[in-house]
Structure formats: C-alpha cells, structure tokens
Amino acid sequence: MTRALSTARRVGAQIFHDPRSLALVLVLPSLLLWLFKYVFDASPEIFQRVGPQMLGLFPFIIMFLLTSVTMVRERTSGTLERLLTTRLRRGEFIAGYALAFGTAGLVQAAVTSAVGIWLLNLDVDAPWILGIFAVANALLGTSLGLLASAFARTEFQAVQFMPLVVIPQLLLCGLLTPRGTMATVLTRISDVLPLSYSADSFTRLTQSSRWNGDFAVDLTVVLGFALASVALAALTLRRRTA
Q: Per-residue pLDDT tens for 201-234?
C-alpha cells in the first residue's frame, strides 16, 4: 500500500502542477456544461431535463481520455519499465494511478456539480445524490481509461479507443431516447453497459428526491464495473509498447 500511495502522490503532483491538465480536469467540464445551458437558452426545460446527465457524462469522458493517454505515455517513455524494475508490482502501479486519477475525478465532479447547481441553476431536489453519481462516473471513466491503455501502443491509439468504449455507451445509455423504446437487441446491449445505470439514476433524480433501492443498485453496478476494470488493467498491463 505504501508503494501504491507513493505512485499516487507522484502522479497527482504531475496532474496538479501541469496547468493544461489542471484546466482539463477542473475547468473544461464546467465550461462544457455552461455551453450546453446556453445552447438551449430559449428552451430552459431541455437543460433542466438533460443537464443532470451532462453533468455526469463530461467527467466520464474527460477522465477516460486523460487516464488512457497518460498511461500510454508512461509506457512509451520508458517510465513504466523503469518503475517495474524496482519492487513496485503491477497491481501497486495500477492502484497508485487509480488513486491519483480517482482523486482528480472526485475533485472534478465536485467542481462541476457545484457549478451546475449553484451557478447554472440546475434544479435538482437531491444534489448530494447527483454529486455521488457524478463522482462514480468520473471513477468509471478513470478505470476504463486504465483498461483501454493496456491495449494501445501509442497515445493516438489511446484516443481511438473513445469511439469503441465511450460513444456506444453515450448512444445506448438512454440519453437520446429512453432505453425501453429502442430495438430489443439494443436494449439488451445497453443492459450490460455501466453508463446506462448512471444515466437511469440521473433521469430518476428528476422524479424522486429520496435515496432508494434503485439508486443503490445503479451505484453498485457502476462501482463494480470500475473495480473490475482496474483489476483487469492490472492483469493486462505491459511493461512497454512493442
């Protein structure tokens, strides 16, 4: 655990001392949410209906990109190979990265939630539930980014995983149309995609302000996918790009 925490501190220092990474983590999601609000300035009911989903989706997408690209850069630069010649194990390395990027995702989700609720007047009866799922989405994006990086040889290939991992989930999670109205085969596929469960919870927030069993199930599924992705990332981690 000590070595994992040391890795997390090193990666965290890189993130929070790099102005571009800091802006990507803390500023960009809020700007995108602000842009989304004023795109529908003439129809504020659309922002109130879809805004909660956007608040969760932006951290998910950005943390996926940041994590996957950073991990591939660590491998192609030789940093990973040098670290694994020490006593640091693969699981400890992945755990350290998960802690660092998970913390960044938590801060990102907190900032974006605060901006959406208090500055953009997103009307949510239970903002604390909204915040929980925004953080869960950021952690999910981080864990899937760690897993995707194991299969990418270059940073460009890491970005190319976005159409494979992220976009299908965006299309099938119920954001564009209710999942129950899609073709049966698409509904079955969406049932095994983690983002569908967080999208269901964001939609449910517009109808209920109390924590219930449905929220608990959705959160368990999202966090379960995140933990499984981190475990698979540790198992598939390669020392360097061939």
A: 888 877 777 888 889 999 999 999 999 998 888 8
Q: How many residues does the chain have?
A: 242
3-state helix, strand, coil in the chain (%, to 5): 80, 0, 20
Q: Which domain range does residue 94 map to? A: 2-236
**Sole residue written with tokens 């219930």:** 212
Whether residue 242 lies inside any domain: the answer is no
Query: pLDDT tens, 103-155?
Result: 888 888 888 888 888 888 887 777 888 888 888 898 899 899 988 888 888 88
Neighbours of 6 (CB within 10 A): 13
- HSE of 41 in the Cβ direction (CA atoms, 13 Å)? 4
Domain count, the chain: 1
Examine residue 165 and state whether it is found in any structural domain, yes or no. yes
Q: Indicate the residue type of 237.
A: L
Assess if residue 241 is contained within a domain: no
CB 109 within 8 A of CB 146: no
